[in-house]
Specification:
The protein is of the alpha/beta class. The protein folds into two domains: 101 residues, 2-Layer Sandwich (Enolase-like, domain 1); 264 residues, Enolase-like C-terminal domain (TIM Barrel), CATH 3.20.20. It is 39% helix and 19% strand. It is built from 15 helices and 18 strands. The strands form four sheets. Strands 4, 5, 7, 8, 9, 10, 11, 12, 14 and 15 form a ten-stranded mixed β-sheet that branches. It is globular and about 60 Å long. The structure holds 2-keto-3-deoxygluconate and magnesium ion (MG). Magnesium ion (MG) binds next to loops.
Length: 405
């Protein structure tokens, strides 16, 4: 079965998504997600100009060889653009293999290790009370794990908080130029402990709590935060610090026993290797789209298992439902799966374009038994929502210094 054609689509049903469709000479097609938020067209060009011509005529079943061809066979390896392109092709080939076998992808990966996929949902509030009100609403819907993000008194806008935006999709999409936000570590510290104190008072001790620092603290500040929050027993603290220098996590780990998670911006096993093998983290959060697809995710999970590190794949709205489906298939099989981030199935337009039968119940997601990934892409619906240039925000300290967003 040979690859006959590869198409690359970009649509903006509220936010941009890059979707790859691989078609075989037997007429079977597979789908992959290649979205890199704010840099979508770079992946499109990489795919169309440099990847697609090399794929025509190749064996669509030779997933590992195609992966190696696109990774090892490329002198300029790694990075988000290259790895998103590889990921999309890899997902599409797994989708094809499942469709040809008549089996959902999780069966090809070894079958189910658990009943369903436990999710953590987001509570984003304008203040501490509002955040906990939202968390309570999620608990009443059945969620057992919740990420808490609250606006910071004295700062106009904060990561994770909606402000005047109507939903999370609106918040991160449709920006013709990068908006600027302000960050103050001191103001953040003035707020953060109160958020978790109130959360434990109102939600009790059974609900798992997560918080995303979004890499805004230095390692020693993260260590201080970890110590401050230890008594609230978080499931994990996410992206406590930037980890281009992975040894910075040695500093955090020396000071606190708070569980740590990182990896949503990582693109390969090599990016997380030091953190995993030195047991400096507890959850690895690489996404299938940004880390090289199903093939790469499986390798990362197996490596992490040796060191008791669990997986907690990134589930932000800028990963398309195709990536979410790939995560679900991996989550249900992976023995060291921890938890899946979940922000809902998107607005009406997104649900029109990407169709699937995933079921939610009691804070868990259940896959349908459709063959392959189980997602279909409605090309004609997608053409109603053309690409719009859009950026993530940038962040500055109060004196104007550019900071990590
Ligand atoms: O594109 C950036 C988002 O994916 C990111 O800001 C979301 O940190 C995020 C998360 O944990 O969902
Ligand atoms: Mg994050």
């Amino acid at each position: 079965m040979k690859i006959k054609n590869v198409e690359v689509f970009v649509c903006c049903p509220g936010r941009n998504f890059v979707t790859v469709k691989v078609v075989t000479d037997d007429g079977v097609h597979g789908l992959g997600d290649a979205t890199v938020n704010g840099r979508e067209m770079a992946v499109v060009a990489y795919l169309k100009e440099h990847v697609v011509p090399c794929l025509i005529g190749r064996d669509a079943h030779a997933i590992e060889d195609v992966w190696q061809y696109l990774y090892r066979g490329t002198y300029w390896r790694r990075g988000p653009i290259t790895m998103a392109a590889i990921a999309a092709i890899d997902m599409a080939l797994w989708d094809i293999k499942g469709k040809v076998a008549g089996l959902p992808l999780y069966q090809l990966l070894g079958g189910k290790s658990r009943r369903g996929v436990t999710l953590y949902a987001h509570a984003n509030g304008e203040n501490v009370d509002d955040t906990i009100d939202k968390a309570e609403a999620l608990v009443s819907q059945g969620f057992k794990a919740i990420r808490l993000q609250s606006a910071i008194p004295g700062l106009p806008v904060t990561y994770g908080v909606l402000g005047d935006k109507k939903d999370y999709y609106d918040m991160q999409g449709n920006r013709p130029l990068p908006p600027e936000e302000t960050w103050s570590t001191q103001k953040y510290f003035n707020m953060i402990e109160g958020l978790f104190k109130e959360a434990r008072e109102r939600l009790g001790r059974d609900i798992h709590l997560v918080h995303d620092v979004h890499s805004r603290l230095t390692p020693i500040e993260s260590a201080r935060l970890g110590k401050l929050l230890e008594k609230y027993e978080l499931l994990f603290l996410e992206d406590a610090s930037m980890a281009e220098n992975q040894q910075s996590y040695d500093v955090i780990r020396q000071h606190t026993s708070i569980p740590l998670a990182i990896g949503e911006t990582y693109n390969s096993l090599w990016d997380c290797k030091y953190l995993i093998e030195n047991q400096l983290i507890d959850y690895i959060r690489v996404a299938a789209t940004h880390g090289g697809g199903v093939t790469a995710m499986k390798r990362i999970a197996d490596f992490a298992a040796i060191y008791n590190v669990k997986t907690a794949p990134h589930g932000a709205p800028d990963l398309s439902p195709i990536c979410f489906a790939a995560h679900m298939h991996l989550d249900i099989c992976t023995p060291n799966f921890g938890i899946q981030e979940f922000v809902g199935f998107g607005n009406e337009q997104i649900r029109r374009v990407f169709q699937h039968d995933t079921r939610l119940e009691d804070g868990m997601a259940y896959l349908s038994d459709a063959p392959g990934l189980g997602v279909e892409y409605d090309e004609s619906a997608a053409s109603d929502y053309p690409y719009k240039r859009s950026y993530l925000p940038v962040s500055r300290l109060e004196d104007g210094t550019l900071w990590n967003w």
